[in-house]
Amino acid sequence: GCDSSLNLTSQKATDAVNSVFQSLRDIARVRMHMKQFNSIRNPGSNTHQAASYKPLLKQVVEEICNPDRLDPVDIEHMSSGLTDLLKTGFSMFMKVNRPHPGDHPLLIIFMVGGVSVSEVKMVKDLVATRKPGTQVIVLSSALLTPHSAVELLFAPDRLQPDTDI
Fold first, then answer.
1. What's the structural domain count of the chain?
2. CA distances from 30 to 27, 34, 87 (A)
3. Residue 160 lies inside a defined structural domain of this protein
4. HEC letters along the chain
5. Is 3 among the domain residues?
6. Could you tell me the pLDDT band of residue 113, with boundaries at 50, 70 and 90?
7. How would you label 41-68 residue by residue, b for 16+ Cβ within 10 Å and e otherwise?
8. Which Pfam families match (predicted)?
9. Among the four 27, 37, 127, 160, which has the fewest Cβ within 10 Å?
């Protein structure tokens, strides 16, 4: 609501900062129901006091490439086709393991909202070191730059689709 720095008031600046923090709280609230991927902040430990940042995309890819192969908590396998539906139905009566996302040699990741070049490189490096031989395709609704990421944070209708097609 301010076209130049000459028109900037303390109240307008406070409102803008409050709006940004409200957006960040809204983004965090979306992940509250998740058990494993509910935070991007690592609070640290007794030996390493400093808090650190761990991107959500990195957490998801590490879970997919996890060699321990536990059933992922927040990643769900969606059945497709009659055979998969029958297996899912019988799994209520018998012990049938769900397919793990890392079982397939092709991993397709689609990021709604955008992905940065550094995130794509991080995914490529993680999969190459933890699950060699797996082909990764990263798709996204936008290629983010630092400027566009901040611009999206300040956009008043960032969740509305672009209708200028």
1. 1
2. 5, 9, 31
3. no
4. CCCCHHHCCHHHHHHHHHHHHHHHHHHHHHCCCCCCCCCCEECCCCCCCCCEECCHHHHHHHHHCCCCCCCCCCCCCCCCHHHHHHHHHHCCCCCCCCCCHHHCCEEEEEECCCEEHHHHHHHHHHHHHHCCCCEEEEEECCEECHHHHHHHHHCCCCCCCCCCC
5. no
6. confident
7. eeeeeeeeeeeeeeebbebbbebbbeee
8. Sec1
9. 160
Residue pLDDT, tens place only, 96-110: 666 677 778 888 888
Question: Does pTM top 0.85 for this prediction?
Answer: no
Q: Which tokens sit at 1?
A: 């609501």
**Does residue 18 belong to any structural domain of this protein?**
yes
Q: Which amino acid is at 142?
A: A
Q: Find the domain containing 80 and state its range.
A: 10-154
